[in-house]
Each structure stands twice: as C-alpha cells, then as structure tokens.
Specification:
12 helices, single chain, mainly alpha, 76% helix, 0% strand
Length: 278
C-alpha cells in the first residue's frame, strides 16, 4: 500500500469517526442543554433537574427494577443459550440452522404481536403465581435472543469447540465443566458482548413494560416527562451515560484479557494455557 493510499485511508477513517461521533453526541448534548434550562425565558442555567432525580422514589424504584431485570435477563440468556449452542455444535450440527432461525425469529415479529400473544400468560402468572415486574425477564430473554445469538455464534466460531471438548472429556471432565470451565473462558469477549447487548436492550425497553402495565425505567421516564420534562430528559441522559460507561468498562476488561493471550505462545487458544480446566 502506497503512502498516499494510507493517508487517504486515514483521512477517511477520521471523517467517519467524526461523523459517527457527531451523530451520537449532538443529540445527547442537546438533551443536556435542555435539562439545564431555567423555568422561564432568560433564566440562568441550573442543575435542578439533575438534583431532583433522587427526590422521586418511584423513579429510583424503576431504576432499581430495570437494573435487576437487566441482570436476570443476562444470566438467563447465558444459561439458556450458551449450553444449547455448544451442544448443537458438538452433537446436533444439523440443527444449527433451525436454532439460528428460532433465535432470529423475534426480529421479524412486531413487539405488539408478541405482547398480545404473551399477555394471557402474564395474566395467568399474575393471578396464580406472583405479580412482579421481574416476570418481564421471560419476555426480555426472547427479545435479546437475536443479538445474543450473533455475539455468541461469533465467539464459538473463533475457537475449536470440538477439540477443546474432546481434550477436556479425555481428562475426565463432565459436560458442565466442559461448557462453563473450558469453552466459556475462551469466548469471554463474546459473552461480555452478549451481556452488554442484553443490558442495553433491557434498559431501553418500553413497549412490553408499558402494555403489560409494569413500571420500568423507560415507562417511568415517559410518565415523569408528562409532569417534569427537564428531570425526564436528565434521567434519559444519565441512562445513556451509564450504558456508555458500562461499554467502556467492558471493552477495557476484554482488552486486558486479550493482552494475556500472547504470553501463552505455542498454544492454539488462549484459555488452553495453564490447563483448559480452570
């Protein structure tokens, strides 16, 4: 590649980075500017909208419930999807397309259709079992399947699942050990990405919670916006910043693990060093 071509490529990357950054940051900056406006024209800037967030107990409860839903959904997604995908790759490869189709199916079904189909189930659970917002995690696991499947499938495609599993089995490991102590550590980046996508989707979900009459963060922000637009926008900006900080933390965590891999030279996969069984 010539020097002029490298220079053009670098300029193109900078332009794309600037345009992408502007696309995301300008709306967030406008929201922050709105949340710091005074109560009337010509009033000085104020942070009252931000300081009053903690004075809304329903809002704090909605934030706590949404974080709990994000944690439950991420754990349930990993427990359900990871062993299924590993087992299909090892024992039932002919079902790979079927599993992929089922996982991607929620993308093609409108949310309102899913809600209409699930509402009788939720009504029965609320009457006969328990009526709690955390029941939404069942529906959220369905919603995150397409995104989590793609992230986990990329992680599984990057390692030799069959060789790792056969090596572990030859040493006497059970299937639980093979899945969660041999294969999962070798695809930690994919697991983090799948969990991050799940958290981001759950924190931004509105349709299911609103139509099923549960108060999560987005529904509470919507209702708060009818009475106090400044605080509603401040909470929206804070939730976006939380997701961004979480993304940065997870990316640095994954990068730290990637730096360990070159030290284990001569081994086919990073997690194979020091014994695949951890």
């Amino acid at each position: 590649m010539t020097r002029a071509r490298r220079l053009r490529l670098r300029v193109f990357r900078v332009i794309v980075l600037v345009l992408g950054g502007a696309f995301f940051l300008i709306p967030i900056g406008a929201m922050f500017e709105f949340s710091t406006r005074g109560n009337h024209v010509g009033a000085p800037r104020t942070l009252d909208a931000w300081t009053t967030i903690v004075t809304y107990p329903d809002l704090l409860g909605a934030i706590r419930d949404s974080l709990g839903l994000a944690a439950i959904t991420s754990v349930a997604m990993v427990v359900l999807l990871l062993p299924t995908m590993i087992w299909v790759r090892l024992r039932l490869p002919r079902l790979k397309r079927t599993i992929e189709f089922l996982c991607l199916l929620p993308l093609t079904i409108p949310a309102i259709v899913l809600v209409v189909g699930l509402s009788p189930v939720y009504r029965w659970m609320a009457i006969n079992l328990v009526d709690t917002i955390f029941l939404l995690s069942f529906a959220y696991v369905i919603l995150v399947l397409p995104f989590a499947y793609r992230a986990l499938d990329a992680g599984l495609s990057a390692i030799d699942v069959k060789t790792l599993s056969e090596a572990a089995r030859s040493l006497g490991a059970g299937w639980g050990t093979v899945m969660f102590r041999v294969i999962a550590p070798n695809m930690s980046g994919a697991l983090l990405n799948a969990c991050l996508l799940s958290v981001a989707l759950v924190l931004g979900e509105f349709t299911f919670a609103n139509l099923l009459s549960y108060l999560n963060l987005q529904v509470e922000i919507f209702q708060l916006g009818l009475a106090n637009a400044g605080t509603s926008i401040a909470v929206s900006v804070a939730s976006l910043m939380f997701a961004f900080i979480l993304l940065v933390i997870l990316s640095f965590f994954g990068r730290a693990r990637a730096r360990v891999a070159p030290e284990r030279a001569g081994l086919p996969f990073p997690g194979a060093a020091g014994g695949g069984l951890r």
